[in-house]
Amino acid sequence: MIKTIIFDLNHVLVTDEDRGIDKAYINLIGMTGSEFWDAGQEFFKEYNLGEINLQVLIKRILTKLELNPALNESIIETYKKEYVAVKGMKELIASLKK
Questions:
Q1: What is the DSSP pairing of strand 14-15 with strand 84-85?
Q2: Separation between Cα atoms, residue 80 and residue 73, nearest integer Å
Q3: Of 31, 39, 59, 91, which sits most exposed with the smallest number of CB within 10 A?
Q4: pTM of the shown model
Q5: Using CB atoms within 10 A of its CB, is residue 45 exposed (0-12), middle (13-18) or buried (19+)?
Q6: Are the beta carbons of 32 and 98 closer than 8 angstroms?
Q7: pLDDT band at 91 (very low <50, low <70, confident <90, very high)
Q8: Between the CA of residue 39 and those of 19, 20, 43, 51, 91, what are the distances in Å?
Q9: Can you tell me the mean pLDDT for 23-44?
Q10: Nearest to 39 by CA among 15, 57, 21
Q11: How many other C-beta atoms lie within 10 A of the C-beta of residue 22?
Q12: Whole-angstrom Cα distance, residue 29 to residue 52?
């Protein structure tokens, strides 16, 4: 049973602050993360509505950019490393469970 739903508006719980992640994107696909994700703007409505998942979104962007579809899993792993919890949020969320 779901008791609480928490929305993260404007980097309250997690953030994608620049931590050098663009270097990982450049090494992987030869462009920054911003350049990669900006290329997929036409697909974000479907993703945000839950009509496609992250894997499909990335596959579409890779296809549009004519990049190797086999990079899909590597892009997902890089994407997951991009976001981190804001300091103190893990503890705050854990305290809500009590």
A1: antiparallel
A2: 11
A3: 91
A4: 0.71
A5: exposed
A6: no
A7: confident
A8: 22, 20, 9, 19, 36
A9: 92
A10: 57
A11: 17
A12: 22
